[in-house]
Amino acid sequence: MTRYFSTIMRNLLFALTASAFLPNAVLAQNGKPEQSLSVGYTDYAVDGYWGTDSKAHLSAAIRLENPEGKGQRIIALRCAIGACEEVSDCKLFIKKDLEKDENLYEQEFAPEYGWNYVYLDFPFNVDGMEELYIGYELTSAEDAIGYGHAGGDEEGNDCLRVNYDAWTNLSRQGLGDAAHCLSAIFEGGDYAAHEQNAAGLEDALLPKRVKAGETFFLEGTLDNLGVCTLHSFDVVCQINGGEETRHPQEAALLHRECAPFTFPIEVLQGRNTVRIRLEAANGMPGNASFDQTYTVDAYAKAFPHTLLVEYFTSQNCANCPAGKAVLDQAMRGHEGQIAVVNHHAGFSNDLFTIQESLALAEQWNVKSAPILTLDRSVSRVNGADLFVFHPAFITSSMIRERLADRALANVEISNTFYTGDNHLEVRAKVEKDEAFPSSARLHIFLCENGYAASQTGEGAYWEDYEHNHFPRAVLTALEGDALAYGNGGVAEAVCTYAVPAEYPVIGKEETTIAHPERMEIVAFVAEFDEAAGNYTVYNAAVQALNPVEGTSVCRPDEEDAALFTVRGGEGWLRIDGNFDKAEIYDTAGIRAGTLCEPGRAVRLAPGIYAVRITHPGGTSVKKAVVHGH
């Protein structure tokens, strides 16, 4: 007891003495020790983040047994924190007893999303202590407590508290074998039995598709696997089996301290093999654990990739808000590189359901929500290739891997929205590499954001939940419009559309108000081969509506309500007006008929149809209902 009391007094005295010389009682870590030891969760992987559905004060801690056997003092804490924009009151602490409020040490810090390596303002001496608890606390309305799944040699990693209630653990929160992503960094111990000098590269990624002659990057996280502070290492690069080149690198990392790492590479056009390995950690050959060979295809034309994420949801889906939070977390940091379309289909119809979303849900066998698909192509999920999957399985690595590869086609869009008559003109330009398939078609969706309406959630109900990225109309055929490429591999297209004041609600005699000022265009080039199940999206683009005062040159004249009129009767549909061709599609996106002359009628089965009309002013899409006899 006397030894324990003297240790506490020594820590307190050190803090008081240091604060007497520092105006804000802050002592920076001026130098790094030559050896240190990470104790607790020592893996790199963060498998997820835990939190509550409402704002709460969360605490996470782990127990350290025999701390004085691990070093003389704790100099830093390492932890993973999610949703840092919504985190406040973040503080790390060291305690003797979790059930008591007294902290032996505490320190506020500003968190970053992901791994945080927080140096203590004052190193904490552990002499005479048989066990300690280290941890952190914060306030958040989102998932913020990082967890992973480590091996069995980790120390007690699962102490958890919500709003100052009794301490519990992650197992009781449904995370049976999870461990807090949390560890203490010791120094001053005898670390002779540990790996001394070693470096690793975690989550390493090299693009599979690049532009020939353009520098691209190996990206990853450098991790010091040795107890000696990592000062230097070598990157050895070999391209196409040629001569190896050695590139010395500098670092300053404690044991299990991580830092982002990039390495520039350039290859010739065609298929290439790129071997990268790490060597010579702190000048000691062989003490590095990374050696990977990649295949990289380089093309004359390759463009930055915008990923299309399509999320199936419903106002009545209790799990959809939670699924959206996981998806948002995975997309964090990639703003401007992702186009999102939220289809209100697959679970139940609501205020924002459109026929085209229902048709896609049927084609892709979407029978529940939340469900999502990335670029309308398969994703590797839990060892299986899935076209659509639950957002619980989405990870930032999946997003990052797709965005790393260049696209073989580029989509550029511009638009003019005439506020006088709500006439929208969308101009699209697609440029492609020779290897890009000409079968890919142009798709244009008009989506709306910021619509406050009801939403069901897990144990909650919101009257004014904000709905975003939901499609209002598909301006092309559902299977896309064919593109004709000219010299240089460039194709151009124009679509026009009159934005109505209101949109009908499927199955109800009510409407929702349209808000053009909150609308955006999502355009992409993709396959649409239902027989082969190939719907691959190659690249996408997003642009908000560009309002212009006045009316369009294609505006209706004073006597007519429109340039043309679509009339549906009992088993027939007719179009009057000045147009070149009209293509009629059912709710499954299948062409049901074509009209090339005004005034003629086509026989159709009862149902709702989309009519795509090509006219002198461009292309317009209208809806029509054919009644039964």
Task: Explain the layout of strands and helices.
Blueprint: H1 2-21, E1 37-40, E2 48-50, E3 56-65, E4 73-81, E5 88-95, E6 105-108, E7 114-125, E8 131-140, E9 145-148, E10 156-162, E11 168-169, E12 179-180, E13 182-187, E14 199-205, E15 209-211, E16 216-224, E17 230-239, E18 245-253, E19 258-265, E20 270-279, E21 291-299, E22 307-313, H2 320-331, E23 338-344, H3 355-363, E24 371-374, E25 379-381, E26 384-386, H4 396-404, E27 409-418, E28 423-432, E29 441-448, E30 451-457, E31 460-467, E32 470-474, E33 490-498, E34 502-504, E35 511-513, E36 519-526, E37 537-544, E38 547-548, E39 564-568, E40 572-577, E41 581-585, E42 591-595, E43 601-603, E44 607-615, E45 618-626
Parallel strand pairs: 15-21, 22-23, 27-38
Antiparallel strand pairs: 1-13, 2-9, 3-8, 3-10, 4-7, 4-13, 5-6, 5-8, 9-12, 10-11, 14-16, 16-19, 17-18, 17-20, 20-21, 22-24, 25-26, 27-28, 28-33, 29-32, 29-36, 30-31, 34-35, 36-37, 39-40, 40-43, 41-42, 41-44, 44-45
Largest sheet: 6 strands, antiparallel
Low-confidence stretches: 1-29, 555-562
Total helices: the number is: 4
Which strand order do you get reading across the main beta sheet?
A: 6-5-8-3-10-11
Structural class: mainly beta
In what range is the share of β-strand residues? Answer: over 45%
Report how far the terminal alpha carbons are from each other: 94 Å
Shape, per Cα inertia axes: globular
How many whole angstroms does the radius of gyration measure?
A: 30 Å
Number of strand elements: 45
The share of residues in helices is: under 10%
Query: Whole-number average pLDDT?
Result: 88
